[in-house]
Amino acid sequence: MNEPIPFLDVVGVNSDVREELDIAWKAVLQHGRFVGGPEVGMFEEQFASYCEASECVGVGNGTDALELILTALSIGAGDEVIVPANTFAATAEAVCSAGARPRFVDVEPGTLLIDPDAADAAVNSRTAAIVGVHLFGQMIDVPRVAAVARRHSLALLEDAAQAHGARFAGRRAGSVGTAAAFSFYPGKNLGALGDAGAVVTHDRSVADRVRRLANHGSAPGNRHVHRERGRNSRLDSIQAAALSAKLPMLDDDNRRRSALMEAYAALLPASCAPVAVSPEAQSAHHLAVVRTAQRERAVSALDSAGIGWGVHYPVPCHLQPAFSAFREQLPTVEKAAEQILSLPISPTLGQADVARICEALRGVTS
Ligand SMILES: *Cc1c(COP(=O)(O)O)cnc(C)c1O
Question: Where is coiled-coil annotated (predicted)?
Answer without folding.
Answer: none
